[in-house]
Specification:
The complex is a heterotetramer, with two copies of chain A (310 residues) and two copies of chain B (329 residues). Chain A is of the alpha/beta class. Chain A has a single domain, classed as Rossmann fold (3-Layer(aba) Sandwich). Helices cover 44% and strands 10% of the residues of chain A. Chain A is built from eleven helices and eight strands. In chain A, helix 1 packs antiparallel against helix 10, helix 1 crosses helix 11 and helix 5 packs parallel to helix 6. Chain A is globular, with a radius of gyration of 19 Å. Chain B has two domains: 179 residues, Rossmann fold (3-Layer(aba) Sandwich), CATH 3.40.50; 127 residues, Rossmann fold, CATH 3.40.50. Chain B contains twelve helices and 14 strands. A seven-stranded mixed beta sheet of chain B has the order 3-2-4-5-7-6-12, sandwiched between helices. Chain B has a five-stranded mixed beta sheet with strand order 9-11-10-13-14, sandwiched between helices. Classes of the chains: A alpha/beta (310), B alpha/beta (329). Chains in contact: A-B, A-C, A-D, B-C, B-D, C-D. Chains B and D meet through helix 4, helix 6, helix 10 and strand 14 of B and helix 4, helix 6, helix 10 and strand 14 of D. The structure holds thiamine diphosphate (2 copies) and magnesium ion (2 copies). One magnesium ion (MG) binds next to strand 5 of chain A.
């Protein structure tokens, strides 16, 4: 048990430290553009990927750094991709918000709200037909529940009997508007409209998310339908790197900060182990950034390649 | 299913059916789906008999075009070769994000690590009485999107060959069939050239180059044939594919004739005809002595055939456009 | 009460006889194109429009003849429009599947499945802001529940507090596929996903539909939200005029035919009154067709008018 | 809110804000809505202060673009003048059916009895680091659709005037703003000409006609100004509107120069530049001695600026295209 808790802490911390450094990179120009960070939500990808098979395909959103890393994408290449380098992921084509790494069954981020749901249905359709035993999972935000494509995919998955897992990361906001202003009912309530199972879980506990995802995976297999996991969490940063968060009620960040999944994960550990782990990840991340910075710039003459097969 | 001999003329819709059948037989990874495509044999009969022959590789979906396109995308990313039917091209619009923002980007953004070898079959064009939401010719919207391939076949042979070529392609292909031409007949050779992007030179001539595709081809044939009787020899080219399109054949012809008419049923304004004219104008400069586009006038299509006839291209408007270019010096 | 029952019978019969004649028109070429008939579903528009205010805007689908007539569109002009004549409705621009008559608060048919829902939300938004006291209603099929735009509109109406009525005509089929193969849960169950009220009703009884619509209208006003009415009915003809209905299970049409709302409506009447009404409507409809056939063809030179304001 | 004096230069985004403010003040039937438009003041600040000033006439919506466009359509049919913001043009694609199949048909099919005096505001184009799903320039798709009006303003003055003109228009208007130009400054006269479809002749010259719009205008100005130093006097025309567009001004200019370059950030292939070139070629025939289009190469836009710079139009590619046409006889 202790080992799992150390792993959770380490994997969440890696995501946190990489993202904190990426935020600095955006600010000082090492990353061109913006980034949507998952600070405060790390327990969800870490917990879920613990329960998924390593080959289970995963689709995420623009807020997908945690998912890429939790699927095992190497930090150096991941950071290089966000920095617009010639990484082994997408060579700078994807960037922070639209990167993928099929080698790690990370089928990609998606910068269209809800846009990854239909493709996940399709991935699941193929894996079911090919009997690979793999169950695709897709992460979306709470605000995405109001996009038509999410609705269509959940119904179609249900009636055609296609098993996949939808993880709704309910982080309290859609951009700058509180989720509850936008969505008539919570995601888990909507599952009934599709005759699919839903599991609600504390999204700030990696072990709880892992357990929920494990159950969801089993249910997907036994019901041969989509299964929903609604993970309750809090976005501890801005919607994106440049967000001044003026819309936040006073004191909210302090209050939410007390629920920080990293603090909680660390509190479960022996302090010496925790500190050693911390130092190890700090060093690992520093090294990854140093090495990512060495990756070459994309080759200009490659810009037009891969639009078509040939 | 009984298959036609090469000597037998078959309809356009039967050619589609045959292409789907042959593709399903040739490759286990092909699946075919859409609204009423499976058990009911397809709204226009394109999938007739296929459910019976191939079981659940041919199936029905809810009326959810975004999810349908996504289902094709995801399954193509994971090793299948889906052919999804969207009943009318007008309905592509409810799934436009999936086509443009998802399907088209797959290969490029992943640097070729993810691919989407899928086909979207649809049919388009106006038939008498069809309303504004069931009459549009929308190929230009998709030709503008890098990452997509777009075909607009007009004969049974091309319907067959284009679809086979599309299903074999490693790129996502959109096939715009013609509902109006579904009953038209022709011979189909199953071993005909299925290369992507190759035009068909329908008539040879030196007076003017006429370029067309899809539903407008029969109108152009009629116009060109009657002009031939008057001594004007027009070169008639059916592009078949507009992404990629056969610039070489068109440029060579236009360089010879110095005159160009492009005809399509889509709205003339900002239609793909503009791309053809521009490409030729850029290449030939002042050597392009005259050019015209014929397309639907800038209006939604009214249901009444009396009104729609005023808007759609006709043998008459095509003939006049051709004569116009010949008259000009 | 008797008077209402006669009215129901007369109004349903008018729709039925007009559509039966239109089907002949399609077959003999007097109508160019196809038509989607509501034969077997007449009680829904007749009942609903009885309960709506005459100025309440109504949006329908391609299967909207009954709605247009129930809103009071004059049969001669209606038939002329379907025949592609220069009618006062749309002068042949709309035709069978896309006609409108704002003079009768009939805001139009829609040939995109579910496509009328978002505009109904907008109509309701304007009427609410302008405090007209009118409540828009939209009719859709059961199959339309799986379109994204329907989902988006119901959620948005709910969270923004916009009152309108959605009448789902559950007629057992979406084109040639049984509805239950396509939709994970019935429409009324889905209402819960939007935190809106739903009323299920026997759609083959005009008085029941009227009562349900009256309640729905009151609920829309009191909750200031969308309200759903799911009307159970049976499509007694093909999906469209050219549908051979080979997909129908044997005996289904006979069985469903026994539920024909017109037979039922007639059975509630005194036979003499019923027969007199019948003869009256037969004559009225024959006259309407005769007069519609006299309407002039659309003027060719008008084809390009009204694309833009000027 | 404090309003700028006419002498004060303001940013493009502030000009939009001012236009919305003035429209809300002038006409009670104007409402403004979209994602994060109300309480958060707009994702880019276009609606800053408007919620505070106009209460619930300015409001937030769920992330449901189809329902948003429909809400605008329906409310415009029933007497309001809605202005709906779609955050990025790329997201128009999830609502394409509502725009094309619903909004665009309203007036025509009802023979003018129903109208849709609504405005869809969006912004588009690539900025460094923006991904393929947040970089597209999509105006050509909408220019092809009869019933829609389309504007692509490039200066603070035009942003103001176009938006006021759009809100007053009885037709549905799509305004494609430029995110990249939001911080650029200029003087805004609130009583400037807001007529729809009128081009701006930015520079006069006789060597070649350069036509552009939107984000590409500043690049064209730079190219044209540096060519002027080399003795080539180019006529630079900013269309501002592409539906309707000022064919008269462009044709008159091209007739004088005999040379045409069209520049836009949208993908070159089947972009609206093709319509401009074709219209001129049809009109001038062999008198159009040379023409070129400059646009984004046929590729999705990669996130890395190193790569996207290879694809997007630049002062350099524009300059070369202009010199090319001058070099040709
Ligand atoms: C179709 C579409 N509409 C709007 C946006 C802009 N947008 C990006 S993120 C976002 C909020 C999404 O909220 P939620 O789904 O809760 O996810 P979160 O950002 O909280 O993780 C919006 C509106 C988009 N990317 N795609
Ligand atoms: C977006 C879209 N997809 C598909 C169609 C084709 N289509 C027309 S009616 C129909 C079936 C609709 O079924 P339902 O909603 O139950 O209504 P019904 O026809 O039974 O009244 C379909 C698939 C369409 N018109 N629009
Ligand atoms: Mg959220
Ligand atoms: Mg139905």
């Amino acid at each position: 048990m202790m080992a799992a808790e150390v792993d959770d802490y380490r994997d969440m911390l890696r995501i946190r430290l990489i993202e904190e450094e990426l935020l600095k990179c955006v600010q000082d120009g090492r990353v061109i553009g913006s980034a949507h960070l998952c600070i405060g939500q790390e327990a969800i990808p870490v917990g879920a990927c613990r329960a998924l098979k390593s080959d289970d395909p995963v689709v995420a959103t623009y807020r997908g750094h945690g998912w890429a890393l939790a699927k095992g994408v190497p930090p150096v290449q991941f950071i290089g991709e966000v920095m617009g380098r010639d990484s082994t992921l997408n060579g700078g084509r994807g960037g922070s918000a639209y990167l993928s790494s099929p080698d790690h069954a990370f089928m990609g981020e998606n910068s269209i709200v809800g846009g990854g749901l239909p493709m996940t249905l399709g991935l699941a359709m193929a894996h079911q037909r090919r009997a690979t035993g793999l169950i695709p999972a897709v992460s979306i935000g709470d605000g995405a529940m109001n996009q038509g494509n999410v609705h269509e995919s959940l119904n179609m998955g249900s009636v055609l009997g296609i098993p996949f897992i939808v993880i709704v990361e309910n982080n309290g906001y859609a951009e700058m508007t509180p989720s509850t202003d936008l969505t008539a009912t919570p995601a888990a309530v909507r599952a009934a409209a599709y005759a699919i199972e839903a599991i609600e879980v504390d999204g700030n506990s990696a072990s709880a998310v892992a357990e929920a995802t494990r159950r969801a995976r089993e249910l997907a297999i036994s019901t041969q339908r989509p299964v929903m996991v609604e993970a309750h969490t809090r976005r501890l940063g801005g919607h994106y790197s440049g967000d001044a968060q003026a819309y936040r009620p006073k004191g909210e960040l302090e209050e939410w900060g007390r629920l920080d999944p990293l603090t909680r994960a660390r509190s479960l550990l022996d302090p010496t182990v925790a500190e050693a782990t911390y130092q190890q990840v700090v060093a690992e991340v520093a090294d990854a950034f140093a090495r990512a910075a060495q990756l070459p710039a994309p080759l200009e003459e490659e810009a037009m390649k891969h639009v078509y097969a040939n | 299913m009984s298959t036609p001999t090469d000597a037998e003329a078959i309809t356009y819709i039967r050619a589609i059916n045959l292409a789907l059948d042959d593709a399903l037989a040739a490759d286990d990874s092909v699946i075919v789906f859409g609204e009423d495509v499976g058990i009911p044999n397809g709204p226009f009969g394109a999938s007739k008999g296929l459910r019976a022959a191939y079981g659940d590789r041919v199936f029905d979906t809810p009326i959810s075009e975004s999810a349908m396109i996504g289902a094709a995308l995801g399954s193509s990313m994971a090793g299948l070769r889906p052919v999804v039917e969207v009943m009318y091209a007008d309905f592509l619009l409810v799934a436009m994000d999936q086509i443009v923002n998802q399907v088209a980007n797959t290969r490029y953004v992943s640097r070729g690590r993810l691919t989407a070898p899928m086909v979207i079959r649809t049919q388009q064009g106006s038939t008498p009485g069809s309303c504004a939401q069931h009459s549009q010719s929308l190929e230009a919207l998709f030709a503008h999107i890098p990452g997509l391939r777009v075909a607009v076949p007009s004969t049974p042979q091309d319907a067959y060959s284009v679809l086979r070529g599309a299903i074999s392609s490693d790129d996502p292909v959109m096939v715009f069939e013609s509902r109006r031409l579904y009953p038209s007949k022709g011979h189909v050779r199953r071993d005909a050239d299925a290369r992507i992007g190759v035009a068909d030179v329908v008539r040879q001539g030196s007076a003017v180059t006429v370029v067309t595709w899809g539903t407008s081809r029969p109108l152009c044939e009629e116009a060109v044939d009657s002009l031939a009787l008057q001594g004007y020899e027009c070169e008639l080219i059916d592009l078949r594919w507009i992404s990629p399109w056969d610039t070489e054949t068109v440029l060579a012809s236009a360089a010879r004739t110095g005159r160009l008419v492009v005809v399509h049923e889509a709205v003339r304004n900002a239609g793909f005809g503009a791309e053809v004219v521009s490409t030729v104008a850029e290449s030939l400069g002042g050597q392009l002595q005259a050019c015209r586009r014929v397309g639907t006038l800038a209006s939604p299509i009214p249901s009444s055939p009396v009104l729609s006839a005023q808007l759609l291209p006709s043998v008459d408007t095509i003939t006049r456009a051709i004569l116009d270019t010949i008259g000009e010096k």
